[in-house]
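Much of the work behind modern protein science is quiet bookkeeping, done one molecule at a time. The protein below has been through that process, and both of its lines are reproduced in full.


***
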Amino acid sequence: MKAKPRKTEQIFVPLYFNPETFQAVCADAVKAGFRPALLQARRQKEHDFEGQMVWQRKGIGKFLKNCWKYWQGTEAERAVKLAEHALKKKQLEEEGKKLGVG
């Protein structure tokens, strides 16, 4: 029996973090509600020798995916703010030239 063709396709993207960055991402994921608050970033590996630790990645994928959705959703707003900032900077430079500062 042949499986039904899927309408969507999942793509795996490996990400590598250093320990400090991963812990910061975990903290932000907890704040955003994508990761349980009591979940430690590292835990001891089950049925293995003492001291062998594994990183707990639960909720990180959903957090990063939703951050991207937010980033895409607010693109127009960021562009407007960037244009306003550029205009204000240009006005300040012109004012500085008039005063002889720049």
About this structure: DSSP finds three helices and two strands in the chain. The mean pLDDT is 86.
